[in-house]
Amino acid sequence: MPPPARRRDRDERGPPAAPARILAGRAFLQGKLQTVEVAISEDGWILALGKHLTGARRHDVGQAVLLPAATDLHVHLREPGGPPGVESIASGTMQAALGGIALVGEMPNTQPPVTDVPSLEEKAARVPGRAAVDVLLYALARPSSRLPALAARAGAFKLFLSPTTGVPDPPDGRDIPSVLAELARLGLPVSVHAEDPTRFARSRPALDPVGWNAERPPAAEEAAIERLLPAPPPLRLHVAHVTTPASVARLRGAGVSFEATPHHLLLSDRSVRSAFAKVNPPLRAEADRRGLWEAFARGEVPVLASDHAPHLAADKDRPFEGAPSGVPGVETMLPLLFARVRSSELALPVLLAAACDRPARWFGQPHGRIAPGHRAHLLVVDFRQRTRVAARRLHGPCGWTPFEGHEAIFPREVYFRGEPVVTAGEFVGEVRGEVVRPEFAGAPSDLPTA
Ligand code: DOR
Ligand code: ZN
């Protein structure tokens, strides 16, 4: 496993390196768009910002804007052990790049689940030469796992409190405090799938997303969040896919990070009336969806993450009860929300804090901002290039999207470590993603909360 990424501090560099490339135009700096030139080193770091930089090829982005690329804390790339023809590290990271994401957090509910060092090493070996963006690997936190050995190699832990795809046996609720206490000592970020299965309704099987919301109700999420709080102080705790304004209100100010997904922000339990919209936690009633969106737009949700779960269309196209849970979304996450910026429903600084800055800091990575010493993972976005999401134009093997027809703005160009990997909306780059591990500059309590 490679050592953690090292931030390039000015005094480490010796004499100033000559830039290999200069990008010029309006860029998102310190909370607003400003006209600037960005000098990028040969090895893909932002060297300097200035007005009249020289010494390298200069590319002016014109009417478009330069933004930091995003980090997606939550994807399921299904490798190893996924069904034939489903997602892979190669296909999922290419979709990430096309959607403006430079780092994904890969979840451990693959087959076999990542519960020990050999399974972690096996997955890590699949990244070099195949991943288009960087990958941080989660290990599964189970009471029976040897957590210190995993912590020495993994990038983060995932704790499922309820059964879900590939994880049929969540820990007994009574074991959770001791697992959290041990994770707090180990120092890595911990993401929790917070649904309390003792609160699931069992009266009649769900036949559609409205029934699924009744079966795994908001009360199950709220009860699971209560089990987690107060978090043991040094724990870097992050609650995955929060779905209601009540959960946001409970978590704000509790010293924990949390995320919302595009599907819970943009779709209700009546948006798509089939098993294609079956997901854990479920899509919620419109009032909850709207409340979650309003909290997000006010900047009260620290992180945006996709929970990309790309089940094949053939597997989703089944009677509701037997269909798997999960929706794809890594390629569309930022483009959907860029369209909401364009329509003035969302402020650009709110989006970039949630999609770029906070998740990169959460993973202890030196990017997510356009500033010297940060990685040159950058997007060129032309907010006039509005389009509509169409599964046939997306790049994943799953072959469908729950956002068909939604307005979106895809990045025109994407730079990964200073090199163009996406041009005119198509993947053209080399595949240079690596496994990364956190490097934390601040104190453990320095959580990037909203
Ligand atoms: O709907 C879901 N799908 N929720 C999860 O927690 C897992 C995911 C998957 O891996 O398919
Ligand atoms: Zn997930």
Write structural notes for this entry:
The chain has helices at residues 89-98, 117-124, 147-151, 176-186, 209-215, 218-228, 245-251, 262-266, 286-297, 313-316, 333-342, 348-362, and strands spanning 21-29, 32-40, 46-50, 57-68, 70-75, 101-106, 134-140, 156-160, 189-193, 236-239, 257-260, 303-304, 378-381, 387-388, 407-408, 413-416, 419-423, 426-427. With 450 residues, the chain is of the alpha/beta class. The chain has a domain at 68-362: TIM Barrel (Alpha-Beta Barrel), CATH 3.20.20. It has an eight-stranded mixed β-sheet with strand order 3-2-1-4-13-16-17-18. Strand 1 (21-29) and strand 2 form a beta hairpin. It is globular. The two termini are 32 Å apart. Mean pLDDT is 93; it is low at 1-5. The chain binds (4S)-2,6-dioxohexahydropyrimidine-4-carboxylic acid and zinc ion. The site of (4S)-2,6-dioxohexahydropyrimidine-4-carboxylic acid (DOR) has 10 residues, from loops.
Radius of gyration: 21 Å
The gross shape turns out to be globular
Spatial arrangement of strands, main beta sheet: 3-2-1-4-13-16-17-18
Distance between the termini: 32 Å
Structural class: alpha/beta
Element order, helices and strands? Answer: EEEEEHEHEHEHEHHEHEHHEHHHEEEEEE
Helix residue percentage: 10-25%
Give the beta-strand count.
Answer: 18
CATH class of the domain at 68-362: Alpha Beta
